Amino acid sequence: MAPVVGIIMGSDSDWPTMEAAAEALAEFKVPFEVGVVSAHRTVRKMVDYAESAAGRGIKAIIAGAGGAAHLPGMVAALTPLPVIGVPVPLKHLDGMDSLLSIVQMPAGVPVATVSIGGARNAGLLAVRILGASDAGLRQRMSDFQAGLEKLVAEKDAALRD
Ligand code: RP5
Fold first, then answer.
1. Pocket test residue of 13, 15, 34, 96 for ligand 1, highest count of atoms within 8 A of CB
2. Any binding-site annotation on 14?
């Protein structure tokens, strides 16, 4: 099936963090593509990727980067698609640098920023975005949420066993 979500990251070193977004999409059987696209090291590739994504059938982009994390914001500036930013924590500053780089976008160019290292939620948010126009996917998200509720109830009950 043709990919409908693009997962991109500034470096292959971001993959251990970003993998969780791919796993979430796979759980919901949402086809996705993965690639390294750097805002600083491969500027022309970033422009090509962002400008061509909608035309290729991509409906949401998950972009992760660490440090001076300009990739999500630059991609959001180049595409009308929803962009979800994942702040990747690096060795220094515990990801605060990535978080602030991604979340502090100027009005007019939104990036839906998840928590530091929160790639799983980025994947789940992409599922919800697609689910807004896909009843089957929306139902699977509702089922998933019911599963979370059941799990918490079981753990709660286990405390008193
Ligand atoms: C950022 O620089 C990347 O997103 C990565 O988090 C960070 C370090 O990249 P490498 O030096 O590990 O390739 O652009």
1. 13
2. yes
